[in-house]
Amino acid sequence: MILRRVLALPSWADQVTVFAGEPGPDRPLRTVRASLDASASPARDELVALVRPVGPDWQVDALLRRCADVGAAGVLLPGPAPLSASRLLADRLSVPLLLTSADPLELIVDARVLLAAPEVDRADTVLSVHRALGERLRSPEEIVTSLRRLLRCPVAVLDERGEVLAGELADAARVRVTEPVPHRVELADGVLLAQPVVLPKPPVWLAAVLGRRAAPRADVVAAALSVAAGAVQRWLLAHRLELERDARSRSALLGDLLRLDGEPGADLRRRAADAGWRLGGWHVGMRIGVPSEVDTVARAQEVVRALRAESVDAVVVEHGDGWTGWVTFDQEPTAERVRALSVRLRAVHRGLRRTLDSRLGVGRPHADGLAATVAEATDAARLAATRPETGYFLHVDQLGMAQLLLEWTRTDTFEPAANALLAPLHAAPGDLVRTLAAYLDAESSLAETATVLGVHRNTVAARISRIEQLLGVDLSRPDERLALHLAARAVIL
Amino acid sequence: MRITAADVPALERGVALLGSGGGGDTGTAAVLLRKLVESGREPRVHAIADLDPTTPVVPVGVVGATAAFTEKLPGGDEFASAVAAIERWTGSRALAVMSIEIGGLNGLMSLVVAEELGLPSADADLSGRGLTRLDQFSVAATGRGIAPAALAEPGGQVVVLGSGSDGEVERGARAFVASSGGWAALALAPIPAGELAEHAVLDTTSSALSLGRRALAAGESPPRHVLETALGGGLLARGRVLEVSRYVGPGQHGRPGFGRGSVTVADHHDGALLRLEMENEYLLALRDGRPVASTPDVLSVLDHRTGVPVTCDAIRTGVEVDVVCLAIAPFWTDPRRLPMVRPRAYGIDCDPVVAR
């Protein structure tokens, strides 16, 4: 047994201060002996606990000396602090000098129980955690609150990226989230314990930070965390089941609505009302597309939170590889309102892109019926995937329908023709195809093209004249310009 | 032996060193003595062997709060009153005086008194150092007893404690002093010079004088070995006072205790911590928690630069000091007398640690 393990006992941690002679991590402790006064003769690895205050007595110094001579584990003093002379001496002799204002006899009993049966502390803690969390389903917040009380240290539930879901933890970033096994991380002044909850995927983490004083008790806390991990898992599974059920019915309802030709029937109306969706009014659709490996059910909450954070009151439904959503207005929204909405959605998307490889398309307002605006949004999202320069965000209002029609150019017959048309440019140096596309997108403005591409306008001018040379065209002629614009679009997409 | 003007500083240094941090401030007594000597009245100190064995020698001195002695100066007739009272009580005329306590101001006052009374001074005292209580005097240790004792305070009151145990006389004298002027002149019953060898510590004035001379010769900030040689004692620590703590000590028999205290000095040499436990004198020295010196040996704290002894009242944090231990006269290390002056006599539960 080591002295620090005893100091980490709850009763000792609360009521005993290390006044001087900070014990090293390995200072052994064989037993704790009660002594009526400071005249005791300590033995090796023994902690002498005085049961009566001795005040500023010089005998404390003499006792420290005897402890140092035989290699005793230290001295526990009740009552008022001894002189700073004693503190200096304890530091000088490296004899731990502990102070308490509590009843030293109780502390001695606790220490002796630990020394006699070290496993009792762990068993007690594990049992109390089990009792506190075992009976019913508890939210992560409740679990964290209970653990903090029982383990007397900061505890948090983290998601698979180490972000805090519940509780507070300063060193959450130190959890090695890529290794889903229980582990401990040594901190500058303590230890971080992490316990993964591997099912359901993605894993979440229970993490606790023990201060330097409590660190020797890490084995007990780790055992308690593994018990608590079960409670977190139960809650996650139950919650997940609820989410899945909810998501499935919503996405089925959305499917029905999108397939609808004409007026919805009474049954559909009732289901929509149950889900809290308004079918009447003006809708602005949006579509967030993500790679297929993203768990859209689990992360729907994130999207909802992000929207709420920008005060966008939208319905979001897990739908295919992503989410489909819409905002409902009572009357036809003015251009101003649509633009404001677009700005907010762009901000939402910027936030989501930090953790999600997503793209966002927004449709135009349509009255009565979601299908049209959602379809526009879906097309826009698909286009947005190729637009890193807009932050993978496209709003159909900005595009105009004409550009949406470009979708049509992505046909099997048009693409080979387009490739052939632009082939001379591929062989030449400089990103001529992109330059051409940007130039035409920018309404033949050299300055704007230069800004978009991030090159000097003279470079653009040079490239354009080379393009005209290579292709043998005159870009001032509308017909040739349109053909090249479409071809460049098709090749780039 | 005559005490000349040149001897006064040496004698003052010597008695202050023997005070072991107590015995009272020697400044006022030194002024009185110097004035006397400068007016041509050089006190004569006689070795005991030179005195007729039947010569009655009266021990005299100041008791009570020595700080009050400096604030409330003697009127001039306190000692005469006390000696007269004890002469009347015992029916024996004083033909010489001696000091009750060589350590501190009484080591000088007996010479002043002798000269004022026109009597020779005997080279002996009842303490051999600075002591806290009357019942620790050598006459108490040898069983001769203190009573009768006459006390005269500066306000004119005179009392004689005619009989009683040593403890009772101590308590009575203490009560009288506390309820009158704060200090009083004390005269004890005359002791025939022939009995002084048995009942007193001999040659203390002369040895205080030579100790003081050697200490002054060592100069300011003396090196370690020079200081040890000059004082004939051990240097326990040379360093800075880190902490001075004062508190009321455990009282005994319903009496309030004397003020107790601890002084901690960090030795510059090796960083060791020297802790001194004090009451009215420095009583016990622990070096890194190990007792290294104790009463009855004389523990003195000297200002490192000037070498002036620092009393228990005056010591404070931050001063650079030398802590020295001087061996006590063999009178006190006799196992029959040691219990009177060992640490336990002051309520410090530690065996005496004496040099030799």
Shape of chain B: globular
Q: Using only CA atoms, what is the Rg of chain B?
A: 19 Å
Overall mean pLDDT of chain A stands at: 87
Q: Secondary-structure element order of chain B, as H and E?
A: HHEEHHEHEHEEHEEHEHHEEEEEEEHH
Helix content estimate of chain A: 40-55%
- Which structural class should the secondary elements of chain A be placed in? alpha+beta
| Overall strand count of chain B | 16
Rg of chain A, alpha carbons: 35 Å
- Measured between the Cα atoms of the first and last residue of chain A, the distance is 69 Å
Distance between the termini of chain B: 30 Å
- What's the assembly state of these chains? heterodimer
DSSP helix fraction of chain B:
25-40%
The total of beta strands of chain A comes to 16
Q: Considering residues with a beta carbon less than 8 A from a beta carbon on another chain, report the largest interface and each chain's count.
A: A-B, 19 and 21 residues
If you had to describe this structure to a student in words, what would you say it looks like?
The complex is a heterodimer of chains A (493) and B (356). The model of chain A has no long low-confidence stretch (mean pLDDT 87). In chain A, a hairpin with a 5-residue loop joins strand 6 (155-158) and strand 7. In chain A, the strands form 3 sheets. In chain A, strands 11, 12, 13, 14, 15 and 16 form a 6-stranded mixed beta sheet that branches. In chain A, strands 1-5-4-3-2 form a 5-stranded mixed beta sheet, with helices on both faces. In chain A, strands 7-6-10-9-8 form a 5-stranded antiparallel beta sheet. In chain A, helix 16 packs across helix 19 (478-492). In chain A, 49% of the residues lie in helices and 17% in strands. Chain A has 19 helices and 16 strands. Chain A has helices at 3-7, 10-15, 59-70, 84-93, 104-116, 119-134, 140-151, 218-259, 266-275, 296-309, 335-353, 371-384, 396-399, 401-404, 414-427, 432-441, 446-453, 457-471, 478-492, and strands at residues 16-20, 31-35, 46-50, 74-78, 97-100, 155-158, 164-167, 183-187, 190-197, 204-211, 282-289, 314-318, 322-329, 359-362, 366-367, 393-395. By secondary structure, chain A is an alpha+beta fold. The longest helix of chain A is centred in the middle third of the chain and has 42 residues, at 218-259. Chain B is α+β, with helices and mostly antiparallel strands and 356 residues long. Chain B is 30% helix and 26% strand. Chain B is built from 12 helices and 16 strands. Chain B has helices spanning 7-18, 27-38, 66-71, 78-90, 106-117, 138-141, 166-179, 196-199, 204-217, 224-231, 330-333, 338-341; strands spanning 45-46, 56-64, 96-99, 121-125, 149-152, 158-161, 183-188, 191-192, 201-202, 234-248, 259-267, 273-278, 282-287, 290-294, 298-303, 320-326. In chain B, strands 1, 2, 3, 4, 5, 6, 7, 8 and 9 form a 9-stranded mixed beta sheet that branches. In chain B, strands 14-13-12-11-10-16-15 form a 7-stranded antiparallel beta sheet. In chain B, a hairpin with a 5-residue loop joins strand 11 and strand 12 (273-278). The two termini of chain B are 30 Å apart. The mean pLDDT of chain B is 92. Classes of the chains: A alpha+beta (493), B alpha+beta (356). Chains A and B meet through helix 3 and helix 4 of A and strand 10, strand 11 and strand 12 of B.
